[in-house]
Amino acid sequence: MEVCRRSCSIPVMAALWLAAAGACFAAPKDEPAAPYVHADGTVIRDEQNRPLHLRGVNLGGWLCWEGWIFGGGFESESTILERLSSLVGTAGAAAFRDAVHARFIAEPDIARIAAMGFNVVRVPLNYRLLEDDARPGAYKEAGWQVLDRLLGWCEAHRVYVVPDLHAAPGGQSKLFMADPPDPAKGALLWEDETCQARTVALWTAVAARYRDRRIVAGYDLLNEPAPPDGKALARLYQRIIAGIRTADPHHMIFVEGSNFARDFSMFDSPPAPNVAYSFHMYTWFGDDRRKWLDGFQALARKHNVPLWCGEFGENSYDMVRSTVALYEDPANLVSGYALWTWKKAPTSHPGLMVIAQPPPWTDLIRWIAKRWFAFPPTPEEAAAAIRQFLDAAACDQTAEDPRMRNALQPPRQNGAALRGAERSPAAQGAPR
C-alpha cells in the first residue's frame, strides 16, 4: 500500500480526492453534442452515425511491457527495469525505457497497420508512463508527448485509438501484466483507497486532455481486472466514469469484466450510457468460444450495449481465422476485435509482425528472465544489446507473416472483403 501513499503532499492529495469525487459534479449541460464514435443499442456507430466495426491490433509491449513480447518470460515492466538497472545503472535503464517509448512503435507502424486494412489500435498503458509513485498526480509531460504523437499519427493515417489502462496504480491484479508493486501482496488497487483515487484522477486527466480528439474511439478503463468481488469492480467503474464525465461528456467507454474480461455478472444494467462491454478470448485450455459468445451476445441484447473483443490471438493460424469468422457473424453482435499483439519476439505461436532477436539481446533478455545457464553480460555488452534490439524492433526490420495477415482478413461477402474501410476514418477524412 505504501506505493500509493508515499510522498503524497496535501495539495496533490486534495486534487486526487477532488477527481475521485467526480460523482458529485455534473458534466457541462450547455455543451452541444459532438460527433464522436458512440454506442447505439448493440451497435457502435461512427461520427456520421453509421455502423462501425473496429478491427485492429493491440500495441502491446510499448507503453506497458510484458517480458515475453521482448523474448523473455512473464516479467513485469518494473521487474525488467529493476534487473536491467543492476547491469547498466538506474540512468541506463531509464534511457532504455525512454528509447522504447520513442522507437518501439513509430509512425511507420501506424501507416503499415492502416495499409493492412485495420482501423483501430488498442494501446495498453502503464500508469507509470504519466506519473511516478513518488509524485502522484504530477503528470509527466514526456508521457503526454508520447500519447500526443500517437494520436497525431493515427489522425494522419485514419486509425482510431482505444487507450487501455493495463497497469493501474497498485495493480488491478497480481499478474505480471498489471505490474503490481509487490505481487506477493496481491492487487493493491482493491485494498488501498489512495490507489483508487489515483486511478480516477488519472483517467480524469486523460479525458480532459483528449476530450476533443475524435480519433479516440473510447476509453478502456481497466485491463483484465481481478477484484475481490464484482461489487468492488462496479463501484470503482462508477467512480472512474463519473470522473471522466466531469471532463469529457462524449467519448464512449469500454468496460471489461472480471475473470480475464469474461465475467460481467456484476452488472445488473449498463454502468452508464454510451458504454460497450469489452471481452477477451483465448482458447489455450479448450475451445469454449461458442459458450462464451452465446453468453456475451445474450447479455448485449439484455443490456442493449455493443460488444467488442479487446484481445484475442496467440494461437494457430486456423484458430485465429475461425475466431475472426465468429466475430464477423452478425448473429454474435461483436462490433470488432483487436489482435494481441502487433509485434513480438518469436514464440510458440505465429505472430503478425515478428522481431528477429539479435543474439546479444537474446543473452540479455534470457538473463533478465532468469533462464537456466543465462549469465549476466557486462554493462558494455548490455548497452550494445539494447541498441541492437531497438534497431531490430523498427517497423521496417520486423518480418510480416503473410499467413497471419491472411488469417485476420474478414470472410468475403459478395466478392469484397469486409475490412471496415467503408466505416473507417479513411472513408470520411481523418477525425480530429
Give a quick precis of the structure.
By secondary structure, the chain is an alpha/beta fold.
Description:
With 432 residues, this protein is of the alpha/beta class. It has a single domain (52-427), classed as Alpha-Beta Barrel (TIM Barrel), CATH 3.20.20.80. The protein has helices at residues 2-5, 10-20, 77-103, 107-115, 141-157, 193-210, 230-247, 258-261, 289-303, 317-328, 359-368, 379-392, 402-407, and strands spanning 38-40, 43-45, 54-58, 120-126, 160-167, 218-220, 252-256, 275-281, 307-313, 334-340, 343-344, 353-354, 399-400, 412-413, 416-417. The strands form 4 sheets. The chain has an 8-stranded parallel beta sheet with strand order 5-4-3-10-9-8-7-6. A 3-stranded mixed beta sheet has the order 11-12-13. Strands 1-2 form a two-stranded antiparallel sheet. A hairpin with a 2-residue loop joins strand 14 (412-413) and strand 15. The radius of gyration is 21 Å and the shape is globular.
